[in-house]
Write a structure and sequence with these properties.
The structure is a homodimer of 490-residue chains. Chain A is mostly beta strands and 490 residues long. The first copy, chain A, is 3% helix and 39% strand. Chains A and B meet through strand 1 and strand 2 of A and strand 1 and strand 2 of B.
Chain lengths: 490, 490
């Protein structure tokens, strides 16, 4: 068994595939005693070499990583693959049976009709279970401590959508989870299902809408009163799949649409707003003041994904692919169906996050992985995309409209930044920032812990994982007051 | 928690501490289809920084590694710490409670009287259990597949010795296991217990002898008719422990003694032979032709261990510390109580092994880790001892008295070599050599697989473990005909 020699499978992107338990991680520096809870993170880490000879980074099996900060200051680590139906079938076969990213036509006959999900994109805790998420399939539930896979979750059959977002949102006051499924009636369908899920994990509200065009609806926004569905021009078409072309193509000709609906509304309440051709995939947060809705996100002028070609045949434009901190403003009292865009910063960035307690409400600070182009950085040979080569961690102040930044050093890549409040009631911004630092060519990976009010000072501590991890995608922090961080010791 | 900045805890000797499962290891090259079975290997990998601030390499917690070559050609990897009493108590405490190597006077009061073993030196399969061994304590049994620790083993109380060797020997015809315990009545006692254990794991014979002086009896030899106890001048003294000095001191003034006894004999049958002051710790194998006994071993003229000081205060002598392939010959018909030594080679080497099927019988080939001083090699900063820096794998032909060698390449260290017969009945030498290659500064470790009849050609295959492993000590091969190598897949 051998992985291909291509950039996605070599160097710092080489699969790691390690499932491990490591007690008492080494700590360089001093951990703040308030940092108690569990950090989960997931990413694609292919179990087998790709069936079709090569692959894109997004198409690997989901490997969940857990760092547990116990009350006594000790940190334990555990990682486990999500036992998706795909993972189990391929482990049995000893080779890849599923083919290209979101293209069932490339699969082995033996797995036709099976759920293709890899559970590799998002992870969150809700209703006392860990949810491992890939937007092409239902959620997979896991035990939050053992990381044992419990299986695909259809809410006892109530989930009619074939898909479930990797970016659910939460209202910390009501305890509700908000989710969408796009391509909800099958690959490349324009149907979007919207679900409200209560704190006990039951679907309490559902709505079905149709997007103006079919494409990747990777994230969405929920405010106190509204839900916003951004339709961006990463378009899909069933015919391309049958032709063996990439699932998505960038369409520079179509506008961004923003579908706005009351938070507990139905399809007939939906209203579409229209903007320039733009890219946005991840959202800091959304909120509304009366009938004005704000969606803070990272916006680029062009296609961010070189492996999803431009539908017009235009070459990939690295400059246009760079996202910047931006705000989309929708005024429900406007009559022209347009919306406004404000770009606040020229920093290149991705993986926007806020203090999770403020989801659906106004935030001041955003936290983001960024690229300091005046410092050494590794241009991603795999994708030629800034996303995979962040060399800095930034806090963006939406009041002052400025960023503070920490350069992580050479030969390292920063993952998504997670804000950890100092205490349950700490004011916004008072707490810590944590993020994994991938150390290129090194046998370890570090979790950096920074003072969120003093980013430029760099880490208070580095927690060292003595394994090289493959780059991952998204993570979540579960504070100890939400669920105790029991030690993993045996 | 942080390990010291000393050589034993940094660089390629830095603790790894990773317990993991990895399915379907990557293979570079082609694995021979006959290679079916399980390779076990153990080494010291300290769970916690040393209580006394620094430590010697030998004093870490035993971490067992298993590479399983299944019938379908897939290779799985698993590693688990041995849950010794020490490991469990320290994990609970979150810090080291046991102090210096074999010195109970340096322990925390809370663990006084507990078994101090780390189970970090040897590993073997007998009576369907995996035995993890440290010569200062009883064996620890483990499940050979899950690597779950079953606990210390005293043969239902029949083991009266406080200790049990890390180098038991086996007679493949009778299925018997032969073991000693030295310092059998407590640290620094000259008492040696000798045990014969049948194929079902029961003690069937026992003898107690007293060595001419107290010291490390790390290995011994068993032949068809005799057992040989080599007493080498790595001496011990209870007073040193109370004084906080190292457990062992090299004594250049005393001879090597060889105690010879019939295989099923008693203390009164024992006869001592005497030779020059020498070092030998590991034995290829022993056999006898009538009343002539042959013990093939690696012999050095001086102290091999810089951390065990010379009792006379003499400085460490790197040249004298280098072991060479040698033979000790004892003639029971000699009347002067001397024995002969023949040195066959000027290659620097350690970790001698033979085809395990030939233990107690005459062998032709020895397999050994060696140092090609004309090729790049890493001088061990930790110990200044050749043992830790082998850059070559050698087969020594005891008939032709010459070696064949493969240089493993730069920035790598070779571990103990294991011979794997091609089949149950393959002639001696017909099979494969396997050994771990530690890749300094790399995030992976390779298992090299060579044709045992063509060592100079280098590996047929490299099996890649995507984790940096700390240097280990000894291993064992369990062929599939002895115990099936079931896949570990879940």
């Amino acid at each position: 068994m051998r992985f291909p020699d291509s950039p996605v499978f070599t160097g710092y992107q080489a699969p790691s595939r390690v499932e491990s338990d490591i007690g008492d991680l080494e700590v360089l520096g001093t951990l703040p005693p308030e940092l108690r809870g569990t950090f989960y993170r997931v990413g694609p880490d292919p179990q087998f070499p790709p069936k079709q000879g090569n692959d894109i980074f997004f198409n690997g099996d989901g490997l969940v990583h857990m760092l547990r900060f116990a009350d006594d200051g000790r940190v334990d680590y555990r990682s486990r693959y999500v036992r998706t139906d795909k993972f189990v079938a391929e482990r049995r076969a000893g080779r890849a049976l599923f083919g290209a990213y979101r293209n069932p036509y490339t699969d082995d006959d033996s797995v036709k009709g099976m759920v293709r999900g890899t559970a590799n994109t998002g992870v969150c805790l809700h209703a006392d279970k860990l949810w491992a998420l890939k937007e092409d399939s239902p959620p997979v539930l896991m035990d939050p401590e053992s990381l044992q896979t419990l299986g695909y979750h259809t809410f006892d059959g109530a989930l009619k959508s074939k898909t479930f977002t990797a970016h659910p949102h939460f209202d910390s006051e009501t305890g509700e989870m908000f989710a969408i499924g796009f391509a909800a009636k099958g690959e490349a369908t324009p149907d979007i299902a919207y679900y409200v899920i209560d704190k006990d994990g039951r679907i309490t509200h559902e709505a079905w809408i149709k997007a103006p065009y079919s494409g990747m609806v990777h994230d969405f926004a929920v405010t106190k009163d509204y839900v916003v569905f951004p339709i961006v021009p990463i378009t899909s078409n069933e015919a391309w799949l049958r032709q063996g072309r990439p699932h998505y193509h960038w369409d520079p000709r179509v506008p961004v649409y923003m579908g706005v609906m009351p938070r507990y509304g139905r399809a007939e309440d939906l209203r579409w707003f229209k903007g320039h051709n733009r890219y946005s995939t991840h959202i800091f947060n959304g909120w509304n003041e009366g009938r004005r809705i704000f969606v803070d996100t990272a916006v680029a002028k062009g296609n961010p994904f070189p492996f999803f070609p431009d539908i017009t045949g235009a070459p990939f434009d690295l400059g246009a692919s760079a996202p910047h901190v931006s705000r989309w403003i929708i005024d429900l009292d406007r009559t022209d169906d347009g919306f406004d865009e404000e770009c606040y910063d020229h920093e290149v960035c991705e993986f926007p996050r806020v203090d999770d307690r403020l989801q659906t409400r106004r935030h001041r600070y955003g936290y983001i992985s960024s690229l300091d182009v005046f410092k050494p950085w590794t241009r991603s040979v795999a994708t030629e995309r800034p996303m995979m080569m962040f060399n800095s961690m930034s806090r963006f102040d939406f009041e002052e409209k400025k960023h503070e930044r920490w350069f992580i050093g050479e030969a390292s890549t920063l993952e998504e930044v997670q804000f950890v409040p100092r205490s349950r009631d700490a004011p916004e911004g008072d707490g810590f920032l944590i993020a994994l630092l991938l150390r290129h060519g090194q046998p370890h990976t570090d979790l950096a812990v920074l003072d969120a009010m003093n980013v430029t000072a760099g880490p208070l501590a580095l927690v060292r994982i003595p394994v090289r991890l493959r780059p991952g995608l998204h993570g979540t922090w579960v504070p100890h007051w939400k669920r105790p961080a029991n030690p993993l010791r045996r």
